[in-house]
Amino acid sequence: MDALHFFTVYYAGQPIWMWLAFFAFIGFLLWIDLGVVNNKDGVISASKSAKMWASFATLAIAFGAYVYFIYVPDAIYYNSSDNLNQQAVIQYFTGYLLETALAFDNIFVIGMIFTFFAVPREYQHRVLFWGIIGAIVFRAIFIGLGSAVVNQFTWVLYIFAAFLIFTGWKMLFGGEHEVKLEDNPVLKFVKKRMRVTETIDNHNFFVKAPHPDGSGKLVVWATPLFLALIMVEVVDIVFAVDSVPAIFAVTRDPFIVYTSNIFAILGLRSMYFMLAEAVERFKYLKYGLSLVLVLIGCKIIWNFGLSKELKLVPYMEPHWSLLATLTLLGGAIGFSLWKTRSKSPAPRD
């Protein structure tokens, strides 16, 4: 197998022009976002955020229609050659819902980051915008490498299954995890090797200021806004450790994996401004999400071990995963809203 075949089949999964078209489309959406809709600093209201999220969700649904009617799936990624588009679209929406649910944890941690660095609300959108661009790049790397490994060595899925079951179990019974930003090794590394200002200067990530040696020479300093951006990127990488194995447990098609991830990530920024004030109302979502992760891990063992290899049980079709995901996440959200119905969001400064 030559390098080009390995890249185009196992890494990319689809012709390069299709990937370039998708990246161009995402680039256009980001330009509309920052260049037209949110081209000025300012506080984004919950209502505007809801409209933005609804727009991205509508595009995600429209892309699902493309997957069903136009997309040409490669049969090597699916259980059978029957109804490939039906399998692909079900897996796409399962991945989208799963990644969107996992984004709730991101919202909580991102809020802690903004509080820790005292990022004014009018600059938070700028940090999240560049954070989304970083996430698009890093997810492409992780998913591409993951696709190459999973499709070349299918047994790796069993490692993913064990990891997802362990993660879901830990999320279910491990209690609340405390995030200590001041002890983060990445943050310590950056502070040790860069000059960092004490305060945020407008929406700038970098500014020019006199050298600390008192010579009066102007040099480049990073601002706390840049440190906040780095931590947002670190958080996305950390959460990708959970989400990427989870989505590969749903589908091995790299194009479906990546597109479902990116559409969910695009809505994350709007979701943050829409839900940041009420994130405590979704406190029971983690239980539904943990059960989904355990279910997906068990599904790998069921389909690839008990069904394909041992032929002891029938194959679990993708629509059952989608139905279970909808039921568990929808039930957890509904229960959370019902249990916290008497709580009102805390006012923000």
UniProtKB/TrEMBL annotation:
- Keyword Transmembrane annotated: yes
Pfam families from the UniProt entry: TerC
| Membrane topology summary | Multi-pass membrane protein
What is the predominant subcellular site recorded for this chain? membrane
The record's subcellular location field reads: Membrane
Q: Does the keyword Membrane apply?
A: yes
What InterPro entries does the record tag this protein with? Answer: Integral_membrane_TerC (IPR005496), Integral_membrane_TerC_rswitch (IPR022369)
The protein's UniProt keywords, in alphabetical order, are: Membrane, Transmembrane, Transmembrane helix
Chain ranges passing through the membrane? 16-38, 50-71, 101-120, 127-149, 155-173, 218-240, 255-275, 287-306, 318-338
Top-level taxon of origin: Bacteria
NCBIfam families named in the record? R_switched_Alx (TIGR03718)
Q: Which family does it belong to?
A: Belongs to the TerC family.
The protein's name: TerC family protein
What species is this protein from?
Candidatus Phycosocius spiralis
Lineage start: Bacteria, Pseudomonadati, Pseudomonadota, Alphaproteobacteria, Caulobacterales
